[in-house]
Design goal:
This protein is an alpha+beta fold and about 270 residues long. Helices cover about 25% and strands about 15% of the residues. The protein has 7 helices and 8 strands, in the order αβαβββαααααββββ. A two-stranded parallel sheet has the order 1-2.
Length: about 270
């Protein structure tokens, strides 16, 4: 996949908060299966259409072993009553014909320049250890791809101070506190971060070797993070260790989930 990260984006691009529990499961589950059928690995993340998400959708997604990814928004520097700055390229509007490409690209680059961690070190949101933004762009239209390849990427690569372009997963901390995740952690079959809550949920609380994990929230001063530790297993692993099953109860949502962890014979995606 040439160092790109593949994630889910639902089956029919519906606003997830308007759907029933069962429909949300179908939207995420069938999309994930189709991705696995094509590329051979199962994504552990998804982007909700329109950024539409609430705690019910988050709970269902996590129970299925998927974490949501949203683009950055900020109220830093916004006048009272104003709208948040969205790190949204609006490139889809160029395809729709509602905006012209040149002024739209100029607006997007101005938003990139407003990233607090690069442009304003006195900003309350500036942090030397928590830098970076997630940017929304689309690859389904010729116009948006041409804008990304011809303008956005060259602009980002030439920016001073220099930006370090990474996939979303590579920006995430490992849940054992030992640094950042690597690209292969984006997929069930190649994941190395066994404390990743999405991975733990997918595996019904157990990895391929039957090791169970417990995730707790730790507050140290002003920093709150999750810490995951291995705990002794009270039961034996199922079958040959390559499958796990569990019952998930989420209020009105009750379903039996049988999860299969495929052993992806030595393949490493970097």
């Amino acid at each position: 996949m040439n160092n790109h990260e593949i994630s889910g984006h639902t089956w029919s691009h519906s606003a997830l908060t308007t759907l029933t529990n069962e429909q949300i499961v179908a939207e995420l589950g069938w999309t994930r299966k189709s991705i696995r059928d094509v590329i051979g690995v199962t994504p552990l993340s998804f982007r909700p259409p329109y950024g539409d998400i609430d705690d019910r959708v988050r709970a269902i997604a996590l129970a299925m072993g998927m974490r949501p990814v949203l683009w950055t928004s900020s109220m830093e520097g916004v006048a009272p009553g104003g709208s948040a700055i969205q790190w949204d390229s609006q490139d889809w509007r160029v395809h729709a014909g509602t905006v012209q490409s040149v002024p739209n690209q100029a607006s997007f680059q101005a938003i990139l320049d407003s990233s607090p961690q690069f442009s304003n070190q006195t900003s309350s949101s500036y942090s030397t250890s928590h830098q970076g933004v997630v940017v929304l762009q689309h690859d389904i239209y010729v116009e948006s791809v041409n804008l990304a390849i011809g303008y956005t990427i060259p602009y980002a690569e030439a920016h001073q101070p220099r930006w370090n372009l990474k996939t979303v997963t590579e920006c995430q901390p490992r849940f054992d506190g030992t640094g950042k995740q690597i690209l292969r952690d984006a997929y069930l079959e190649t994941n190395t971060d066994k404390g990743n809550p999405a991975y733990v949920a997918f595996m019904s609380g157990s990895d391929n070797n039957g090791t169970s994990y417990q995730t707790t929230v730790v507050t140290d001063g002003s920093v709150t993070r999750t810490v995951t530790r291995a705990i002794p297993s009270s039961s034996s692993s199922s079958g040959n260790g390559n499958s796990a099953s569990g019952r998930v109860d989420l209020g009105p949502l009750k379903f039996i989930a049988g999860f299969v962890a495929m052993v992806f014979g030595g393949a490493i995606l970097l």
